[in-house]
Amino acid sequence: MDYKTSGVDIEAGYRSVELMKEHVKKTMRPEVLGGLGGFSGAFSLEKIKEMEDPVLLSGTDGCGTKVKLAFLMDKHDTIGIDAVAMCVNDIACAGGEPLFFLDYIACGKNYPEKIAEIVKGVAEGCIQSDAALIGGETAEHPGLMPEDEYDLAGFAVGVCDRKDLITGENLKAGDVLIGMASTGVHSNGFSLVRKVFEMTAESLNTYYDELGQTLGEALIAPTRIYVRALKNMKNAGATVKACSHITGGGFYENVPRMLVDGAHAVIEKDSYPIPPIFTLLQKTGEIEEQMMYNTYNMGLGMIVAVDPSETDKAMEAIRAAGDTPYVVGRIEAGEKGVTLC
Q1: 241 and 150 in contact (C-beta within 8 Å)?
Q2: In this prediction, what percent of the chain has a pLDDT beyond 90?
Q3: CA torsion sign, 19 to 28 to 129 to 295?
Q4: I need a surface site. Which of 67, 238, 322, 324 has the fewest CB within 10 A?
Q5: H-type helices in 197-325, by residue range?
């Protein structure tokens, strides 16, 4: 009897690390000390000394049940982008710059090539957010998880000078709300998605004219990362007064989180195009409109509030980062909350 016969293949773990190294090295920043394979990841804080009052920010999350879609489609090279996005977008909407990311993959059986594909996606997410992938863990759990399944999560650490934190404290009536287009469902609400649509190869491979692609392709589209858009706004001199990452809980839960007492957000639903995947989801599942906005991003992955005088500057900076912005509403005086009209 040995460890391998119990279901844990140490040699497969070594091979996984070797296969993922080529992807990890693409994410390196000058601050990273040492290489992959140590007991911990080291990151120099030398540059942070240049800040007046540096504040560390952190975020941790996973991909939820979206990983089930990756299993069914046998497509594992983008789910890692989702894991990174869910963490770094939270850091960015507080005004922070993501510094580094670590992933955690739990699997029923370590298939090195599959693990490498997952990490390839994680590395791509890190590249998109200018964060270094400085470590991680792949844990083989025989008997706890089916051999062909895995779960993926991670966490990121970022930094921000205290004076640049986005807190919402300077919000006032008349401020403009700008929404940034999402790539689709992102990584929230997939438990409902899987109730609405049959999760079979035939269903996921079905082409829909209104989607311009198969159902599976539309659903697995990776979460958009908005780090560079927010950084561009800062560099352009457009002050983000408040910011909301539209994740689980949709508009009704997340928009109020960017507000202070006495500030009420008004969002006009017809101010931007709703991606067809949401229309198809709502129609097929006979889901009430309010539930859609209380569960999904409905086409806006990030919403920022700016002074009216900086609207054009902010929009231009967002476009320069490759994102698509829309003026979607405004701030009014009133009870803290959001109205969709």
Answers
A1: no
A2: 87
A3: positive
A4: 322
A5: 201-204, 215-220, 227-235, 250-254, 276-285, 289-293, 311-320
Structure tokens at 59: 């975020």
Backbone conformation region of residue 322, classed left if phi is above 0, alpha if psi is from -120 to 50, else beta: left
Greatest Cα pair distance, the chain, in angstroms, is 72
Split at pLDDT 50, 70, 90, the class of 246 is very high
What distances in angstroms separate CA 71 from CA 77, 118, 180, 289, 336, one per listed residue?
11, 12, 29, 30, 41
With contact defined as beta carbons under 8 Å apart, do 108 and 205 qualify? no
Q: How many CB atoms lie within 10 A of CB 254?
A: 20
The model's pTM is 0.95
Chain segment 74-115, per-residue pLDDT in tens: 999 999 999 999 999 999 999 999 999 999 999 999 999 999
Q: Which two tokens stand for residue 261?
A: 């007492």
- Report the 10 Å Cβ neighbour count for 188: 25
At 313, phi and psi to the nearest 5?
-60, -45
Give residue 250's pLDDT band: very low, low, confident or very high (50, 70, 90). Answer: very high
Does residue 78 or residue 26 have the better pLDDT? 78
Closest CA to 66 of 218, 205, 210, 263: 218
First to last CA, the chain: 66
